[in-house]
Structure formats: structure tokens, C-alpha cells
């Protein structure tokens, strides 16, 4: 049996979160290894559609000691530009990384060290940082298997462009960020689109003379910690607000798309052959999304008033379209729907972590990424500590914190040994 090589720290995942941890560990002189099962920036390069771009402006790209330095801070990087940004960051970090190495198990050995089984052999470590993100398994409902074979089905992770789909109309299931952007991509290409609208909230893009994310930054929203959030831990389960960075950025009002020819339905409820069924919740979901949209505008209004800021006044929001007699079922064959794009998200896969670190729902437990299992850490997850944690904006702070914890524990262990 091959003897395991030991490292003080092993970072699993070579995306922006894992690279950020590596950078902070190098600054502290902590020996470590980064394992990446594919290659740097793989998910940005391979798991996004052709027209994909950031929904947050470029100035929010603040990886540690590597902020965006292009000439368009208020723009939104396209997919290839995001990949280039990460590759440039990796060159700056120069991490001790092994690409093409998959981790199949992390557990505790008899000697107390953490064991890591990989596709190239075993390792051990004092500390393991899980930086794999939470987008491992594409979600497709079980009843999708009952759809007539004449209708093509793909998940958003496999969608690239409208020409990829067979001729005909397209049903997009899900109105989170991916769903609405794929819907718009198809609509702009002249395809007839149907959209199942779920409970995702939406956000303004520009309001009262300034990009909404700039207002929210000034208001301290991105620095809000999970313990200060009004919904507490439940905030981790909330879907991100939908809007777009396409064509210099704009908000997405699904009512306007309905007025312009996109057919809207409630949440998907089931499939029988070529017939898809919907819940009777379209009006509720549209109203709820608009309520969040209006509440963000109200918060900005209050901030402007409280700080006596000179900003232009905008008219109150008024819905431009209301659903009437929305069908609760559609026959794909009769309607000419040739394809369904599932955009209802992903679920994490932590089955390879054989340590008591998960709650009753399979989610990892941690405090600012530090788990209750000695030596195990998480990073790159939404609301790890703040609203910015799962974004380019907040990962630097999280990485510095974890590197500091590991360094302090290493120094304490060395002091005890001495």
C-alpha cells in the first residue's frame, strides 16, 4: 500500500475560493497543497452558456490582492473575460496545485490526522479546506422521466445557445438567475419561449441615478453577517435575486416579457406524456418578486432621505401586465414545444466527506467556515459569513479568516510541542 504523503493543509477545489485560501496561506508561510479535479476556472469555462456574463458589476471582483483593474469597472464581464480574470489571479498566486486530481474521500484516520483519498493516491493533512462550492448535482425532478421522448430535455448546465436546441418552441423551467437569462437569450434569438415562474425574487438594476449594487454597498448590505440577517440561517436557503448584466446591465421584469410574447405559467407541477402541468401560483410568484423589488427601492429611498443625498426621484412601480386565465396544463406536441430547459438549480454532493459535520438536512455546519470537526473548513458558500461570501466580493475576507485560524492553530500546536 502506498504510504500517504502528509501536508499541513490540503485545499480541495481550485476555483476562486480555493485559490484565495492558497494565496492567504502563502502570505503566512503555511505549507499546503491545492487539489483540483479538472483545471483552474473549469466551471466558468465549461458550465456556462455562450452569452453568459456577471450579474454584479466588475468593481465587485475583489479577489485578495487582485481587484478588477480593467477599464470598465461598471461593466459586466463576459464568460471568457471571467476565465481570463481567474487565470490571471492564479498566475499571481502561483499556488502549489495539482490539476486533474479528484478527491474521493475525506475521513479521520486512527492516528487522528485527516485522510484524503484521491485519484492519484492517498494523502493526510492536519487541516482540510473544502472549496468545491455547492453546485455539484443538477436538479431535475423525477417526473421528468415521464416526458414524451419527442421533447428534448437539457439542464441549464448543458445549455450553450439557441441553435443547440431543435426547431420549435422552448419551455424554460425556473425563474432564478439562470432561468430568466436563458429565457431572455432564447427570446432575443427569436424563439417562442414559455417560462415556468417560481418564487425567486427580483432586484432593480439602476434606481434613482445609481446602480442598485452601489447603493447596497454604501448601505452595508454586502457586509451584513448571517447572524444579523432578519431571517437568520433561513437566508442561506433563499434564491438569489434575478437581474442581468447583459447589454450593459438591466433589470428583468417578467411582466414585460409576457407583454412582449413570452408565455408565463406557474411552477411546474408534473408531467404526463407530452403534457406538462403547472401550479396555480403565477400571480402570487410575480407579486412576491415585485414586493421584494419594491422593498429594495424603499430601502434605498430611506437611505437617501436619512443621509440627505441629492438623487433624482422616480415614479412608483406599476405592473405593466397581469396574468389572466393562465393555463394549468400545456400539451407540448400540440403547442410545438420541442425542448425543455431545466433551470431549477443544483444540490451539493458531500457524500465523500465521512465526518460528522452535517445537519439533519445534509448541509455542512460551520461558524465563518470553521466546522465543529477539528481541522475541517468550508469556503465559497453563500452566506458563509456575509451576503458577499459566495461572490467575488467577499471571498477574500473569508479566505483571510480561515488562513488566520489555521495558522494560529498551527502555531499553538508547535508551542505545545516545544
From TrEMBL:
<dbReference type="GO" id="GO:0050660">
    <property type="term" value="F:flavin adenine dinucleotide binding"/>
</dbReference>
<dbReference type="InterPro" id="IPR050982">
    <property type="entry name" value="Auxin_biosynth/cation_transpt"/>
</dbReference>
<dbReference type="Pfam" id="PF13738">
    <property type="entry name" value="Pyr_redox_3"/>
</dbReference>
<dbReference type="InterPro" id="IPR024000">
    <property type="entry name" value="CHP04046_FMN-dependent"/>
</dbReference>
<dbReference type="InterPro" id="IPR036188">
    <property type="entry name" value="FAD/NAD-bd_sf"/>
</dbReference>
<dbReference type="GO" id="GO:0004497">
    <property type="term" value="F:monooxygenase activity"/>
</dbReference>
<protein>
    <submittedName>
        <fullName>MSMEG_0569 family flavin-dependent oxidoreductase</fullName>
    </submittedName>
</protein>
<keyword id="KW-0560">Oxidoreductase</keyword>
Amino acid at each position: 500500500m502506498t504510504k500517504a504523503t502528509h501536508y499541513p493543509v490540503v485545499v480541495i477545489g481550485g476555483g476562486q475560493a480555493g485559490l484565495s485560501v492558497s494565496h492567504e496561506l502563502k502570505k503566512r508561510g503555511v505549507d499546503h497543497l491545492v487539489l483540483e479535479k479538472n483545471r483552474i476556472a473549469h466551471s466558468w469555462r465549461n458550465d456556462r452558456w455562450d452569452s453568459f456574463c456577471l450579474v454584479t458589476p466588475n468593481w465587485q471582483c475583489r479577489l485578495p490582492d487582485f481587484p478588477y483593474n480593467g477599464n470598465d469597472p461598471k461593466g459586466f464581464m463576459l464568460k471568457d473575460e471571467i476565465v481570463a480574470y481567474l487565470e490571471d489571479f492564479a498566475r499571481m498566486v502561483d499556488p502549489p496545485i495539482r490539476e486533474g486530481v479528484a478527491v474521493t474521500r475525506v475521513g479521520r484516520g486512527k492516528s487522528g490526522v485527516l485522510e484524503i483519498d484521491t485519484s492519484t493516491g492517498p494523502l493526510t493533512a492536519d487541516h482540510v479546506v473544502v472549496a468545491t462550492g455547492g453546485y455539484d448535482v443538477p436538479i431535475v425532478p423525477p417526473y421528468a422521466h415521464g416526458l414524451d421522448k419527442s421533447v428534448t430535455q437539457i439542464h441549464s448546465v448543458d445549455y450553450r445557445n439557441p441553435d443547440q436546441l431543435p426547431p420549435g418552441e422552448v419551455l424554460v423551467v425556473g425563474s432564478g438567475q439562470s432561468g430568466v437569462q436563458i429565457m431572455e437569450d432564447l427570446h432575443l434569438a427569436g424563439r417562442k419561449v414559455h417560462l415556468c415562474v417560481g418564487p425567486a425574487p427580483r432586484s432593480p438594476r439602476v434606481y434613482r441615478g445609481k446602480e442598485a449594487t452601489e447603493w447596497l454597498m454604501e448601505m452595508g448590505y454586502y457586509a451584513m453577517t448571517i447572524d444579523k440577517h432578519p431571517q437568520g440561517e433561513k437566508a442561506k436557503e433563499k434564491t438569489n435575486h434575478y437581474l442581468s448584466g447583459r447589454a450593459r446591465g438591466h433589470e428583468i421584469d417578467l411582466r414585460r416579457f409576457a407583454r412582449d410574447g413570452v408565455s408565463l405559467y406557474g411552477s411546474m407541477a408534473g408531467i404526463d406524456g407530452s403534457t406538462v402541468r403547472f401550479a396555480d401560483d403565477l400571480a402570487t410568484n410575480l407579486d412576491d418578486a415585485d414586493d421584494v423589488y419594491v422593498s429594495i427601492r424603499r430601502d434605498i429611498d430611506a437611505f437617501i432621505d436619512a443621509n440627505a443625498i441629492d438623487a433624482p426621484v422616480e415614479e412608483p412601480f406599476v405592473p405593466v401586465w397581469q396574468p389572466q386565465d393562465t393555463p394549468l396544463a400545456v400539451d407540448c406536441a400540440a403547442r410545438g414545444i420541442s425542448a425543455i430547459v431545466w433551470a431549477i438549480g443544483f444540490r451539493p454532493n458531500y457524500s465523500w466527506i465521512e465526518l460528522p459535520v452535517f445537519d439533519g438536512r445534509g448541509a455542512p455546519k460551520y461558524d465563518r467556515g470553521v466546522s465543529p470537526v477539528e481541522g475541517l473548513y468550508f469556503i465559497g458558500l453563500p452566506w458563509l459569513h456575509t451576503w458577499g461570501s459566495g461572490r467575488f466580493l467577499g471571498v477574500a475576507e473569508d479566505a483571510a479568516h480561515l488562513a488566520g485560524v489555521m495558522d494560529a492553530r498551527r502555531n499553538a500546536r508547535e508551542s505545545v510541542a516545544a
